[in-house]
Structure formats: structure tokens, C-alpha cells
């Protein structure tokens, strides 16, 4: 485990995990009665059902090999566009989406 682990509380853990797998090639398991421990690259993300705590979305900045491709996968998986892919002045290609559970992802790769 890392020192700081993001955690989100969602209404449908299974759907959130499917989204993360489809968009970010996430791995990990969903075990009933426990937070899902999901891995995106070298990061760990805990996802819990709203039966444990109130709905609480996350805002995550995720580095990927191709921001445009991940952005398209996110849209195909039900996300809405908050920021079309663009080139930033600091050398990154970046986009931003909101997933069906309300989590926001800035998706980027270094140019």
C-alpha cells in the first residue's frame, strides 16, 4: 500500500470498477463487505458502497500512455466531457471527464 490512498464512495461499486477497467486498464477485485482495492498503474484506489458512508466522489489526475484514447474509452463507458483533449503549456496532453458516479478524472500524458 502507498502512504495516501484515494477512496471514493459510490452507489454501484461493480459499475465503477467496470468503468475503471475499461478506461484505465485497472486491475483488482471486488469482495463483498470490503472496499474494492483497484490498481491503476502503480496507484491503489479504494472503492466502497454508499451503504458504508454517504456518496463521495473523487477528483483524480491519471497519467496514461494516450490521453485521447483514454478519453474516448471514458465517453464510450458513459462519462461526460468536462474538457476536450488539449495541449497544455506545460507539455501535457490532457482531457477531463465525469463518470456516471460523479467522479472527475483529468486524463493526461506527457508530450
Task: Give a short summary of the structure.
By secondary structure, this protein is an alpha/beta fold. 20% of the residues lie in helices and 41% in strands.
Unreliable stretches: none
The CATH homologous superfamily is named 2,3-Dihydroxybiphenyl 1,2-Dioxygenase, domain 1
Whole-number tally of structural domains: 1
Helix content: 10-25%
How would you describe what is shown here?
- The protein has two helices and eight strands; from the N terminus they run βαββββαβββ.
- The protein has one domain (7-110): 2,3-Dihydroxybiphenyl 1,2-Dioxygenase, domain 1 (Roll), CATH 3.10.180.
- Strands 1-4-3-2 form a four-stranded mixed β-sheet, with helices on one face. A four-stranded mixed β-sheet has the order 5-8-7-6, with helices on one face.
- It is globular.
- The longest helix has 12 residues, at 13-24.
- Strand 2 (27-29) and strand 3 (36-40) form a beta hairpin.
- Helix 1 packs antiparallel against helix 2.
- The model has no long low-confidence stretch (mean pLDDT 95).
- With 111 residues, the protein is of the alpha/beta class.
Summarize the helices and strands and which ones pair or pack.
Elements: E1 7-10, H1 13-24, E2 27-29, E3 36-40, E4 43-49, E5 59-63, H2 67-76, E6 80-87, E7 92-98, E8 104-110
Parallel strand pairs: 1-4, 5-8
Antiparallel strand pairs: 2-3, 3-4, 6-7, 7-8
Amino acid at each position: 500500500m502507498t502512504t495516501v490512498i484515494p477512496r471514493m464512495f459510490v452507489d454501484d461499486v461493480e459499475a465503477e470498477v467496470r468503468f475503471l477497467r475499461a478506461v484505465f486498464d485497472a486491475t483488482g477485485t471486488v469482495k463483498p463487505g470490503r472496499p474494492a482495492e483497484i490498481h491503476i498503474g502503480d496507484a491503489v484506489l479504494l472503492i466502497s458502497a454508499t451503504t458504508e458512508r454517504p456518496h463521495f466522489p473523487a477528483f483524480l489526475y491519471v497519467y496514461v500512455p494516450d490521453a485521447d484514447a483514454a478519453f474516448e474509452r471514458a465517453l464510450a463507458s458513459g462519462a461526460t466531457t468536462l474538457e476536450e483533449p488539449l495541449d497544455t503549456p506545460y507539455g501535457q496532453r490532457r482531457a477531463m471527464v465525469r463518470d456516471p458516479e460523479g467522479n472527475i478524472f483529468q486524463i493526461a500524458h506527457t508530450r
